[in-house]
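Q: What changes when NAP is included in the input?
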Amino acid sequence: MSSSTRMALVTGANRGIGFAIVRDLCRQFKGDVVLTARDVKQGRKAVQQLQAEDLSPRFHPLDITDRQSIRALRDFLLKEYGGLDVLVNNAGIFQSGDPTPLHIQAEVTLKTNFFGTRDVCTELLPLIKPQGRVVNVSSGYGFKALENCSLELQQKFRSETITEEELVGLMNKFVEDTKDGLHRKEGWPDPYTSDGLVYGVTKLGVTVLSRIQARKVSVQRGGDKILLNACCPGWVRTDMGGPRGLKSPEEGAETPVYLALLPSDAEGPHGEYVFEKKVEQWKFNSQFYLPSQVTCPD
Ligand code: NAP
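A: The predicted holo structure follows.
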């Protein structure tokens, strides 16, 4: 493999939207596509499934909650490709209707969705090549959580100057406040009023993190034309989204793939939250949900 071979990588790609993103990239991306999964057997099975469709993704293990696993991937990317051109942070979890105590739900979900995604970015963003594309798969539930926060918290999350350290502090405070039963008093959304708000806070973290990272990329590597965005795939029929979702996994992959394949001369979007290939404002777009569907993880 030469370091001039272009390369795209997707996390959590053995099933669901991540798998559909890999399939689409195999068809459209000019270069190698690496499917990653935390379970080697499931990952290889997914690769075989795509090979049966005459597609040729490569496989590498990755558990986004395991720093060693991320570093092993980083070393592989450096050795084989000298970096990477496209990173899609898709891996995520959602606990619904779970009797697990709230603070444990918060801790577990944040560990994967926010801290895992952040750790992958910490290790891999420095390897992104000029004109690279980074896509963080977030969720409209992040907006729902934001709108259910106190005005004071909303101001912090919407701030154009919030730092990564401040954001990490807020995410950790969410866990502490739920542990102490103080989440309502401290202005967090009340997860008892609507299923999915713990997940929503973790995805709010992913969206704000993406805005911060995009700002950093602009300052530190302004000339490299890297574009980094968060997006929502919509409500998708996967293990996570359930059978009532409005989209197939292929349809759910469309916006992440659009962002991953933004042309080399594109000036944007950058640092945005994108839904249906369009930049969204900071609000929860309830028009896409029937009232009875509002518990979807979208
Ligand atoms: P899914 O079917 O549950 O698939 C999730 C994927 O993430 C699986 O491959 C899973 O691997 C992987 N994963 C979980 N924890 C991981 C870890 N620690 N390290 C590496 N991989 C890990 O979910 P999906 O519906 O495809 O969702 C994909 C993304 O879209 C998620 O970020 C989700 O939050 C977001 N999203 C989904 C919807 C929806 O309606 N489905 C809506 C909005 C946003 P295993 O097979 O090993 O568990």
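Observations recorded in class: Strands lie at 7-10, 32-37, 58-61, 84-89, 128-137, 227-232, 273-275, 278-279.
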